[in-house]
Write a structure and sequence with these properties.
heterodimer; A: mainly alpha; Histone, subunit A; 3 helices; 2 strands; 6% strand; flat; B: alpha+beta; Arc Repressor Mutant, subunit A; 9-stranded mixed sheet; 3-stranded antiparallel sheet; 15 helices; elongated
């Protein structure tokens, strides 16, 4: 699969990663090699095979609808990169 | 050219579970910021979500009520996007195998029956609330709502008018409230609606380019936004322009929609199966039991009230407009109240008292037992209807004791013909002019004389008896 620099720009935008101009071409080449490696899978005929979403044969893991105490807010906010007394803070993100 | 508006809806409904969809935090509305949170709903690394079984049950109940096919093997997917209302940078939702698909609902509208296809119904988690602080230019994230269970119900583009949309939403709200799966309070955001709208030349089979409208938080706003947006698109096309596929926000103050800054590639959510949640396989026995236990919904109740109690269609509509009212009505009838009397009290006094207090039926303290007793006293001729209304007002707020109140205030109806007769005679003696006028043909004066007799008896007399005796005395002399 051809990985273009436009695709690199799109992916970095989606993942909120900014790549310096100069690194985009190198990244495209590397990513192309990785994706090509995956191409080995395309050689198999998987037409009749159910896609696997989970490794373990586990079904229906459910919990009863019971209220449990929530966490101490201080503890939750302790690891926040930015916070005030009661909230997580983020750069302006409301339109 | 004549244009046709084509509308499809995506409705998000918060489920009325006690705890969140994937953790035990409360779903209560409000609360101090970030106090209804834990590592799961704030997306801490390593936290493991576990599905709340009531969410599954409520979603299936809603799917059954909307005549959907229930997916026997269902699973969750991750919808990836960077926006801090979801701290995990993805929302757990269902894309590939939603819990219910392919339903249909019939709407009765003033202009006829409309059939609306339900594309799908899926389970997902709600997002947190962001508040921007213009002073610090930072955004505060409150995750109390994060992880509150939602179902999203997606219709086919089967609506042509705002009236049909409102009829659908009203019916949906009624259905979900009857099922007890949601309180559907729009003002608290527990029922939210996005409207997809396009226009096309009448008769065309092809769909036009659509826009999506968000931020519609009342039925009124939805109706106005639809009218505005259809007009905007038609004007645009008639002037030779074209509609751009975009998300538009409804501004209630300006009565207009405007384009939200289109986030580049915002639609690329890169869904993939949620590895933390195992698939759901529904057991046929469980599903059959759940189907059997579905409560009777409003349309069935309306039909039954008409057939069994001979109530007018209007009364049935009013009584079943709220599940609590319908239950209250059934309680009254069970306790022996004549159905029509029960209906009249609910439509008149009960709804009046609720509206005067700004209360919802489910907040009402008055029990069916109390009102049934009051109705019985009127039926037995022990209270007249007007006095009963006063008693009703007195006992409404605290579900007071009707008999005790009547005794304490000496309100028993005066049924003693001798006592009423005496009062009639006193009234006639006191108002000879009125009596002369009545005999001269002024029928209107009769009402005045009835009022005088009632006053003599402090309003407690049986009005029928007063009428009869007064006519006898006036006519007989």
């Amino acid at each position: 699969m051809k990985i273009t620099t436009e695709l690199i720009a799109h992916i970095s935008q989606l993942s909120r990663l900014s790549l310096p101009e100069g690194e985009q071409a190198a990244m495209a080449a590397q990513l192309e090699r990785i994706v090509d490696y995956m191409d080995v899978l395309s050689r198999l005929d998987t037409g009749d095979i159910e896609p696997m979403s989970h490794v373990f044969p586990v079904r229906n893991v459910l919990r009863a609808d019971e209220e449990q105490p929530s966490c101490d807010r201080e503890a939750l906010l302790a690891n926040a990169p930015a916070r005030d007394e009661e909230s997580f803070l983020t750069p302006k993100s409301v339109e | 050219m004549n244009w046709e508006t084509v509308i499809g809806l995506e409705t998000h409904v918060e489920l009325a579970t006690k705890s969140k969809i994937f953790c035990g935090c409360t779903t209560r509305f409000g609360g101090a910021p970030n106090t209804h949170c834990c590592p799961v709903c704030t997306g801490m690394p390593g936290a493991l979500p576990v599905l709340n079984q009531a969410v599954l049950e409520y979603a299936v109940r809603a799917g059954v009520a909307l005549n959907c096919h229930i997916t026997r093997y269902s699973k969750f997917d991750r919808k990836n996007y960077f926006y801090p209302d979801l701290p995990k940078a993805y929302q757990i939702s269902q894309l590939y195998l939603p819990i219910a698909v392919g339903g249909r609902v019939e709407l009765s509208t003033p202009s006829g029956t409309v059939s609306v296809g339900i594309h799908e119904l899926h389970m997902e988690e709600d997002a947190g609330k962001l508040v921007h602080d213009p002073w610090t230019d930072q955004t505060r994230a409150d995750y109390n709502r994060c992880g509150v269970p939602l179902i999203e119900i997606v219709t086919q583009p089967d609506f042509r008018t705002a009236d049909q949309v409102i009829a659908y939403l009203e019916q949906l709200k009624e259905t979900l409230q009857y099922l007890g799966v949601s309180d559907c309070k729009m003002q608290e955001g527990s029922l939210r609606c996005d409207v997809n709208l396009s226009v096309r030349p009448l008769g065309s089979r092809e769909l036009g380019t659509r826009t999506e409208m968000k931020n519609l938080n009342s039925f009124k706003a939805i109706a106005r936004a639809i009218d505005y947006e259809a007009r905007r698109q038609i004007e645009l096309l008639e002037q030779g322009g074209r509609v751009v596929q975009e998300t538009r926000r409804w501004d209630e103050n300006k009565d207009a929609t405007y384009a939200m800054r289109s986030k580049e590639d915002a639609q690329d959510y890169r869904y993939f199966p949620e590895p933390d949640l195992p698939p759901i396989e529904l057991d046929e026995g469980w599903l059959a039991r759940l189907r059997a236990a579905q409560p009777e919904l409003a349309p069935a109740k309306r039909a039954r009230y008409q057939a069994d109690y001979g109530l007018p269609a209007y009364d049935c509509q009013m009584i079943t407009s709220d599940r609590v009212l319908a239950q209250f009505f059934e309680g009254l009838v069970e306790l022996g109240a004549p159905a029509k009397q029960a209906a009249n009290w609910i439509m008149g006094e009960v709804l009046g008292a609720l509206s005067a207090r700004g209360m919802e039926p489910r907040e009402m303290c008055l029990s069916a037992g109390t009102l049934a007793r009051l109705i019985a006293l009127v039926e037995e001729g022990k209270l007249n209807r007007n006095t009963a209304v006063k008693v009703f007002e007195a006992v409404f707020d605290q579900d007071g004791d009707v008999d005790a109140y009547v005794r304490a205030h000496g309100l028993e109806q005066v049924n003693d013909a001798g006592v009423v007769q005496a009062a009639v005679e006193r009234a006639i003696q006191a108002h000879p002019q009125s009596v002369a006028d009545f005999r001269g043909g002024k029928e209107k004066v009769f009402g005045f004389l009835v009022g005088q007799v009632m006053r003599e008896l402090k309003g407690k007399a049986d009005p029928k008896l007063v009428n009869t005796l007064l006519r006898q005395v006036l006519g007989g002399t």
